[in-house]
Specification:
The complex is a heterodimer of chains A (242) and B (243). With 242 residues, chain A is of the alpha/beta class. Chain A has nine helices and eleven strands. With 243 residues, chain B is an all-alpha fold. The longest helix of chain B is centred in the N-terminal third of the chain and has 29 residues. Classes of the chains: A alpha/beta (242), B mainly alpha (243). Chains A and B meet through helix 2, strand 7 and helix 3 of A and helix 1 and helix 4 of B.
């Protein structure tokens, strides 16, 4: 069974169509990057898949559950790490993780075990007692992803996870994201082409609300007739305009 | 319980902000001290501690609207609420999670104010305890106003409207600082149509053990609290749908 299957997924805001009849599938355990310039419809697509906004028409199925008719089951299997570091600033790192365990209904002992495991995995142990608002951007992003993983999601949405981070922090986060591959299905949006190329099993390129192409990074390069991934992206998006 | 995890977070966010502690606890205490000193030097019946303490308790609650509104507006403005909207928390969990944790803070604030008033000469009687109980509907009114403002304004707007406008409305139209009859006319009529003066009069009556004097003020307070809560829930659900 596909982890994600969209069927003519469409979103309209009054007279403006943000996403047109989107059809794509993501296999279980796969990491798919959604690429596109601003206004391509990536964020709207993620909002629909995560139940934050309702499609105008069409549907999407996450592990077979409809986002329209079974949103509670969908919510139970997904997690989102938003573009901004969505952490509670006056809570400590540990309290942020405990809060996420609590809102997912974990019992106290389960929550404690999960928090300890994630703190170890993400190297958060030493700063567990520090307020999240006092952390650097890189550490906040690391915490944000750890918070998304508290519920052991089957499908993880990472919205621009490395935006604005320095090279080292980005490299650290890439390692963490790579470590997730195969364990859960990951949908990643990014503006960094090298990030998409380095991390993705497959890439989906969107423009003006339409899906232009999906394929592995190698297939994308071949399709565009170039060895460089960023060049391939530009060519495909420009051709898509014609 | 999922809602407790969320409400605990809201409690901690409010209580760990030093500015909140200053305005929530420090400022009402400073006002009590200052006005008591003035009263000792220039005796004014309005500033006698039995009259003053209930007014300061109600005025202090207006800051709870500010804290609540700012917290909710900030959560809306950041991606924090969006993250939580993708969790199993329901709309009811969000509303309770924002309303419930602030009520104990309101009660704690009232207890601290009455304790300070007792140190300044307020007779310690059972009526202080009943005054704290009667503060619950007043607290609900102010906390619901916070939910309403936080649901429709940005954090900067909420700071201005709740921090400046509401605190001034509460101060001027509640009869804490001056007898409304001294101004009279439309001013007094408007004040009597709003809940603030009724909240203060209700608390003054309870503190004096005059339970018959609670009426009709309690109906005004409870009516406003129910109406504002209903509007706030509607506004929150509307913005939740929009997000």
């Amino acid at each position: 069974m596909d982890a994600i299957k969209t069927v003519e997924l469409t979103k309209k805001y009054k007279d403006v169509t943000a996403v047109y009849g989107l059809n794509f599938t993501v296999r279980q355990g796969e990491l798919l990057s959604l690429l596109g310039v601003n206004g391509a419809g990536k964020t709207t697509t993620i909002k629909m898949l995560t139940g934050l906004t309702r499609p105008a028409s069409g549907d999407a199925f996450l592990n077979g559950k409809s986002i329209l008719t079974d949103s509670a089951a969908v919510k139970a299997m997904i997690a989102v790490s938003p573009q901004e570091t969505a952490v509670a600033p006056n809570l400590t790192v540990r309290e942020n993780l405990e809060m996420m365990a609590g809102v997912h209904g974990f019992r106290k002992s389960e929550a404690g075990d999960k928090v300890t495991e994630l703190s170890d995995r993400f190297g958060l142990g030493e700063i567990a007692g520090k307020k999240a608002g006092k952390l650097s951007g890189g550490w906040q992003r690391r915490l944000s992803i750890a918070m998304a993983l508290v519920s052991c999601p089957q499908i993880l949405f990472l919205d621009e996870p490395t935006l604005g981070l320095d090279v080292l922090a980005r490299s650290d986060l890439w390692d963490m994201i790579r470590a997730l591959k195969g364990k859960m299905t990951v949908i990643l949006t990014t503006h960094y082409m090298e990030e998409a190329e380095a991390l993705s099993d497959r890439v989906a390129i969107m423009k003006s609300g339409r899906l232009l192409l999906t394929g592995t990074p190698a297939e994308i390069r071949r399709h565009a007739g170039t060895d460089k991934f960023d060049e391939a992206f530009v060519r495909i998006v420009k051709e898509g305009a014609q | 319980m999922k809602v407790f995890a969320f409400s605990r977070r809201n409690d901690l966010e409010i209580l760990r902000d030093p500015l909140n502690l200053f305005f929530g606890v420090g400022f009402p205490i400073v006002l009590l001290l200052l006005l008591t000193v003035i009263q000792r030097n220039v005796p004014v019946a309005l500033f006698e501690i039995e009259h003053l303490a209930p007014g300061i308790v109600v005025f202090g609650l207006s800051f709870m609207t500010l804290f609540s509104a700012t917290l909710i507006a900030k959560d809306r403005g950041s991606s924090f609420l969006q993250r939580l909207y993708t969790t199993p928390l329901t709309a009811g969990d969000f509303i309770l999670g924002y309303l419930l944790p602030i009520l104990p803070i309101c009660i704690a604030q009232s207890v601290i104010c009455f304790a300070m008033a007792a140190l300044l000469g307020l007779p310690v009687t059972i009526h202080i305890l009943t005054s704290v109980l009667f503060i619950i509907p007043v607290s609900l009114l102010f906390v619901s106003l916070g939910l309403l403002c936080g649901s429709i304004f940005t954090d900067k707007q909420a700071g201005g409207i709740c921090g400046a406008l509401l605190t001034n409305l509460t101060a001027w139209l509640s009869g804490i600082w001056f007898d409304l009859r001294l101004v009279g006319g439309a001013f007094q009529k408007i004040a009597n149509l709003l809940p603030f003066v009724h909240a203060v009069e209700m608390e003054r009556a309870v503190l004096q053990g005059d339970y018959a004097g609670v009426f009709p003020h309690i109906w005004w307070v409870m009516g406003y609290a129910a109406a504002v809560t209903a509007i706030a829930v509607f506004a929150f659900l509307r913005q939740m749908k929009r997000q």
